[in-house]
Amino acid sequence: MVGGLISGGIVLVCTALWTRARYRMRSRSRYLLGETRREEAELSARAGVDLKRFFILSQRLLWGQTQPDLFTVDLEAVIAELLSEYPDFFVAHLLVAFIRREEGKDELADEALARAREIEAKLDVPRERSLRHLLPTEDEWAGIPPKVSLQEVVPGVVWRVPAYFVHGKAPLPEVSNATIVRRRDGGLVIYNPVEVPLEIRDQILELGDVTHLVIATKFHNHFIATTQKLFPGAKTYGVRGHLKNPPSKELHFDGFLCEGEPLFPGEIDEFAFGGHEFEEVVMIHRDSRTAIIHDLLVSNRAGLEGHTFWLRLYSFCWGIDERVGVLSYQVILWTKFLSVRRTVRALLLANVERVLVAHGPVVPAPGESPQLHRALGWVCELGPIEHLVLIRDFFAGQPGFFRDFVRYMIRG
To answer: Is residue 96 a contact partner of residue 77, using CB atoms and an 8 Å limit?
Structure first.
């Protein structure tokens, strides 16, 4: 009897807490993290369609194509479903063109792109409200990357250089930016080092000696061995997640970033996201008030150098357009939500003037500091149950992902 009353009481309390959390989340978009449902409706109005199902289907296609080792997706079935539900939405055809190009089916890709351009050309939408910036340029579709150059962000202190690279069969380039910081002693630290031409390497060395290469997120490993050869005198620091991430296991590291033990105390602050599968460490360079971010945030802005077609489309499908934000799948990667929230709160107290993300423009748009608060401030308003609501809502739309994600977590 007593046991039944206790069990019933626990169920009642849990139900009340869950109902309260759902009520608190009623105005928030689950597809555009950090944004409201009103802003989601505004983006749908710009698109001319209700984007909810588009986001679900497009995300299924993207992960099924780009991460087949983790997620099992019947691409042909999902493409048919997408085009059946969104026959007149040009971005649906654009996504199909992208998938076909990734598959190496160039003729089908060109046909889908032509259809996307045809539909978009008939739209009577002002340029500032259209989504035409998602379309590839002729050079982008041909796989011709932009010219790489070393660009100064903060005079004499911070520089950026991009690398354009491809995966699989498609020649469509992705972008990853390195951030170079001159320390007070004159030495250079390269965050998220990328492969650069020898002439760019020489330009960097003219700025000073490269003393450290820092890779502050466990899923970045593509350019580590190459940049170690370009800068053989530099020490390489990663995160402990590199030790268990298969592509990084054979790479050489001189050390690993440790919470509470910054490499350059009093000069470059470190904010470790230990409760996140990325295991990312965000840097704040005090003197220039610059935040340096790897994967935690993505920037998607029309018309800025560094936003490749690949990045623009991928970011849009994961809920980011014309802003700096968190890709909507990240909520399932917060394994210790309270730790993530605590780090976000500490980060937002930092005095930041600009935000530099690895996947975004080479040089940021003006006013990126308010963007940091817009991108992450909402996390501080969540509780653990609200976080569970976001996870539940994500997997409700992607039940197959839940099965595959559990398998990934068990494998470690």
So the answer is: no
